[in-house]
Description:
Blueprint: E1 8-9, E2 13-19, E3 22-27, E4 30-36, E5 41-48, E6 70-73, E7 77-81, E8 86-90, E9 95-99, E10 105-108, E11 115-118, E12 121-127, E13 133-136, E14 149-153, E15 170-171, E16 174-179, E17 182-188, E18 194-198, E19 205-210, E20 215-220, H1 225-236, E21 250-251, H2 259-271, E22 278-281, H3 302-311, E23 315-320, E24 324-325, H4 331-338, E25 353-355, E26 358-361, H5 368-377, H6 379-383, E27 388-391, E28 408-409, E29 416-417, H7 418-440, E30 447-450, E31 453-454, E32 462-464, H8 472-487, E33 493-494, E34 496-497, H9 506-516, E35 523-524, H10 540-555, H11 557-570, E36 575-577, H12 578-581, E37 597-599, E38 603-605, E39 614-619, E40 623-626, E41 632-634, E42 637-642, E43 650-653, E44 657-660, E45 674-680, E46 686-692, E47 706-713, E48 718-721, E49 734-740, E50 750-751, E51 754-755, E52 757-759, E53 765-766, E54 786-787, E55 792-794, E56 802-803
Helix pairs in contact: 5-7, 9-10
Amino acid sequence: xxxxxxxxxxxxxxxxxxxxxxxxxxxxxxxxxxxxxxxxxxxxxxxxxxxxxxxxxxxxxxxxxxxxxxxxxxxxxxxxxxxxxxxxxxxxxxxxxxxxxxxxxxxxxxxxxxxxxxxxxxxxxxxxxxxxxxxxxxxxxxxxxxxxxxxxxxxxxxxxxxxxxxxxxxxxxxxxxxxxxxxxxxxxxxxxxxxxxxxxxxxxxxxxxxxxxxxxxxxxxxxxxxxxxxxxxxxxxxxxxxxxxxxxxxxxxxxxxxxxxxxxxxxxxxxxxxxxxxxxxxxxxxxxxxxxxxxxxxxxxxxxxxxxxxxxxxxxxxxxxxxxxxxxxxxxxxxxxxxxxxxxxxxxxxxxxxxxxxxxxxxxxxxxxxxxxxxxxxxxxxxxxxxxxxxxxxxxxxxxxxxxxxxxxxxxxxxxxxxxxxxxxxxxxxxxxxxxxxxxxxxxxxxxxxxxxxxxxxxxxxxxxxxxxxxxxxxxxxxxxxxxxxxxxxxxxxxxxxxxxxxxxxxxxxxxxxxxxxxxxxxxxxxxxxxxxxxxxxxxxxxxxxxxxxxxxxxxxxxxxxxxxxxxxxxxxxxxxxxxxxxxxxxxxxxxxxxxxxxxxxxxxxxxxxxxxxxxxxxxxxxxxxxxxxxxxxxxxxxxxxxxxxxxxxxxxxxxxxxxxxxxxxxxxxxxxxxxxxxxxxxxxxxxxxxxxxxxxxxxxxxxxxxxxxxxxxxxxxxxxxxxxxxxxxxxxxxxxxxxxxxxxxxxxxxxxxxxxxxxxxxxxxxxxxxxxxxxxxxxxxxxxxxxxxxxxxxxxxxxxxxx
Length: 804
């Protein structure tokens, strides 16, 4: 009889059956299913014979598609071919090898180990190839290339995490492998604690393992990293368009109170001409930390408070924690007890754990009735005019970090212990919040921010990286975390700018506030009993730097919003690790350059620390222009740049397109009618999709949007603005086009097939986009303003621009 401590691997196939896209195999010890989901995705499942398959997933929303499959069999193998993947299933012992359509090996089981069990723990061992790299796994610290490391997926409250702390708050058990010009992805859809060994202390294998449950993974292969991300997000879902106001600047502190302090905060933003859209309420707005309550001594009239902030152009985003204080007379507690909404011990006793309010019960968000109840609990907040909701402490976190494993959850009727439900608790809370408030807002888009989540969280919420630290290494580590989350399908991500734990130096804050302008979520936040961390808190010079970058963020909102639209269609992140576009460039993996990323399709961001006056950076293949002064650089080279305290190195891809608007104080303010379109000479040309809608409702689902593809062909110097799609009327009526790096005499723009006349009568001093260096360069405007070869494109010889 097998002992629990011995290893049990798959042996020879004893039975085989096929039904359409599904193949079922039997061995002496296990049942295995192989399902073709699409040309790019094949699912592999394995359980021991005493177990049963569970056809349920909180993460996966894609289902098997009608796919052309070729099936072959010989003496030793079953062969399953799609248009992208050739799967070879070895019969004895049962092992899997994945190849591309050229029959080149992509990934294979270790021949001696394969899928195996030790007790309930299941592991798939994969042969480790020379020079194989690994990327992804979502919210993980460490290097871009994860080879030689191991990681755990177990959502954890990690106050003040370090640059190599693991695990963190969110579990994304999806990674990609790169090997000899071939790429693949593996998503382990198992919500128990999982571990990924990517060649740590072993030159033989990489592996992924789960503490219990079935081995259920999806193998994904396509021609590029971008296409693999597209397939993964088709499987697990994509972000929905957020409200435009959530892309503005956000200010938070643990905690702002009373209401008078927040009024002063909002008025200071407006008085100082610093754009902002959001102020958060941390736990001190509640009565004794009780969720869905207000401390009436600090906020005497919450409805009037929210309304007054709205008049100033601010949205209020309060925190909502899952711990429900045990207190008679407290409505939420009484309802939860009366209706059996809280998680319980096996003997029926309601679990209580200690967190901010004291002893608490915890809602079972894996139960449909509880999700409905949680929706109704938001009704009062929505009635007040609130449309942003911050879910925190939802790992779930308790003091002592020891939520008992035997606690039972409904798991949508299937039943589960905490061991299985832990990792999806935050996902289901965020789902409850998003689905509930979306319904309550009656056509308006909610904004939900969560600390914890699992694969698929992008469908419901933005994610921030939790309790980071005010150190340079943490700032740069957070950049890699955000880029890795983007590789895992989570597009709307950010970190606490300036750091939550500790106090940033002036120089570090300057660096971070600049960098935050080029993150999808732009939020300053710091903890109690620390120095203020508002944009004006570090002196006049620092305030001016913050103002310039925040204004730049608002000027670039059309570019950012278009990138969010692209993410809803393809799953591509806003912050794009260079591995997406420059997958096999060895330089991007080196430590000096692994923090660099693309912001949207065309802006290269080179994060810098607070203490090096000269920085070394790498410009990938192609050509690049300095965003602020149009200096041209050939790509594929390392450069040194003097980096002043107010300079974030930013480069625009040759052939790239940027769209910008006039400055605004908040997103509720209408910009001027002129949209700026900046076109950069060189490259292989580009196709850029400009997207616009009302930024607030779901009317875009009924074609109420403005979508226009802009084509640039550098070989002929032609620019084509294609026919508008959608019925939405753009807020811009004219477009002013700036040509960077062009010879005006060679320009031949085309608008909807009509050649435009080019006016070179007026040359413009094109000021740097953010009005940079007001102190250092005040006496030398040649460093601030350049007489670029810009031209105004005129239709019918209008002097300013063309009709949009």
